[in-house]
DNA sequence: GTGAAAGCGCTAACAA
DNA sequence: TTGTTAGCGCTTTCAC
């Protein structure tokens, strides 16, 4: 395997010269530059990243810490991140954490053990503290999370996300506009300081605005995403509260589970119960009727995250916060409440 | 950040001694070993992988080349692989390739550019040639693929998979046993030298054994996994051939799409059409009725792949081929053919 | 514009 | 059992 030294002697130049053209430094004559490039091709030279990283005291790696494997929503984002990293000359190091794991702790460990230059946190909490940020020690971007629960200074990190509360509000408002007043909300937790909680707030706001009092019994928390228990929980909700005419699910995955649960208890969508959710995963196209959902621009989210991080890393750009919009896919799971049912 | 040198001077020993205890070499007195370990803790030493890799002329990285992001089936496998790599002290480098990309070509590129020690190929072709193997240049294991179409010597690579043909046979036989004779097969391609083709063979065998002639018009190829076009193709199939009473889908994803397509054209499962498939993805629990499928041990597949590769890498173990079994999840999508319909 | 040389942190002979 | 030392391939001052 050819090294920089081989190229140097092949071209009768010093290794430093080769290094210079390889790194696009100025101060190299066009002649020698061409000569070196030629040799690189000739000898099929591939730089040794280990050596490079050692000399530079850093790596070309960006860590991606993902919480929640269960969520198919992440897959296209991960793919986009990997692709973008590749394009920008970085290597993505994926690390999945379990529901119980702490992304900041694990992220910090990864940073030191793998000498990561930066971090992308996907599907994490929203309440980072200043201590969390300094524990990480490298620039990071919160993906699908605006992270505004904690006391973190926005200039200390970047984020790419949708406006969870606003989008949830929009979804629930659609239900309200269709005459629904008994609207359940389906989420893993209403107080997890994360996506769920933000969207739950949007739900509350929409209800409040419509003058509908919040009914705690209609707040359905699944705790985790284990399909069996999720189905059970939802079935119980629908059975106990037969007055429910609509469900706002904060994720497509839960919405799909809800449709199954509704079928299990012999009711139907949307004639008995309407459903709307947020995400737009591929599978949500396969429910019957097609799920009505607010589709997130998944690829774009991943691309943006990398773009921002690389700018911070390479160009010392300031941190930034990008908020993207969802697109309503009408689907067929939202119906009107029969006028007879109206209050 | 503390280096091996810091520890050495801190303990009044040579760097080589430190290196020895760090690498579990014998020939170190219990005393000094303890002293060094103590210093490591004290100084929060974290080894610099770049330096290590440079000295060893290799990395601690294993590449994972995945074809087919669209397939949610891979996610739990990827997760298991990442987890196992971590446990064994390796770093997983994920690389996704597109439908058109060549995994061997891209894998080989990855190996050189990232100096990978080994490769796991997930969801690839089954027809590697000897040239392919030598192009890769490092030990590799084919995950979910036994790779027996090509002229590859089994001792030149490892694999972890199910017996695709046999499992497909089993699935189709279930349909036959329930009185079905007009059985369509749903796959991306019957001749892609991959999973689809293997499973297609199992389908053919089951038909042959039951004395049912192969009807080319019942072989439904979706080409890709774009949901919109998949739905369209399946709808056309069902509409054109109203005599179909059952569908064997080689993947759960396509089976779920088929259920949607069937609903779209106003027919129902399983009373009009039965469906069975292979994989066992989480979402297949959410169809109504629940999809009848042969569930693959996804986590186990990932773990095994890493275990085998690491043994080959660390212990120079011979390559091996593991074949795992699926588990039938009965579900509710397979029904009997009404006796009146029997020939 | 180019070269010589030091050094990044670690491993592995080779000596002692 | 331990220490000394020469690299691994690359970047980067500092001379020229």
Describe this structure in words.
Two copies of one chain form a homodimer. With about 350 residues, the first copy, chain A, is of the alpha/beta class. Chain A folds into three domains: about 1-45, 434 Repressor (Amino-terminal Domain) (Orthogonal Bundle); about 55-160 and about 300-325, 3-Layer(aba) Sandwich (Rossmann fold), CATH 3.40.50.2300; about 165-295 and about 330-340, Rossmann fold, CATH 3.40.50.2300. Chain A has twelve helices and twelve strands. The first copy, chain A, has helices at about 5-10, 15-20, 30-40, 50-55, 75-85, 105-115, 130-135, 165-175, 195-210, 225-240, 250-265, 300-315; strands at about 60-65, 90-95, 120, 140-145, 160, 185, 220, 245-250, 275-280, 290-295, 320-325, 325-330. A six-stranded parallel beta sheet of chain A has the order 2-1-3-4-5-11, sandwiched between helices. A six-stranded mixed beta sheet of chain A has the order 7-6-8-9-10-12, sandwiched between helices. In chain A, helix 1 packs across helix 3. Chain A is elongated, with a radius of gyration of 25 Å. The N and C termini of chain A lie far apart (about 80 Å). The model of chain A has no long low-confidence stretch (mean pLDDT about 90). The interface of A and B includes residues 48, 51, 94, 228 and 264 of A. Chain A binds a DNA duplex (16 and 16 nucleotides) through helix 2 and helix 4.
**Class by SSE composition of chain A:** alpha/beta
Q: What is the typical, i.e. mean, pLDDT of chain A?
A: 92
Order of helices and strands of chain A: HHHHEHEHEHEEHEHEHEHEEHEE
Percent helix of chain A: 40-55%
Rounded to an integer in angstroms, the radius of gyration calculated over CA atoms of chain A is 25 Å
What is the annotated CATH architecture of the largest domain in chain A?
A: 3-Layer(aba) Sandwich
Give the oligomeric state of the chains in this entry, treating copies of one chain as homo and distinct chains as hetero: homodimer
Count of beta strands of chain A: 12
CATH class of the largest domain in chain A: Alpha Beta
Backbone shape of chain A: elongated
Q: What is the topology, as strand order, of the major beta sheet of chain A?
A: 2-1-3-4-5-11
Termini gap of chain A: 78 Å
Indicate the CATH topology of the largest domain in chain A: Rossmann fold
Q: Counting H and I runs of at least 4 residues, what is the number of helices of chain A?
A: 12
Kindly report the name of the CATH homologous superfamily of the largest domain in chain A.
Response regulator
Largest Cβ-defined interface: A-B, 44 and 44 residues
Number of domains of chain A: 3
Q: Low-confidence runs of chain A (pLDDT<50, min 5 residues)?
A: none
Question: How much beta of chain A, percentage-wise?
Answer: 15-25%
Biggest sheet features of chain A: 6 strands, parallel
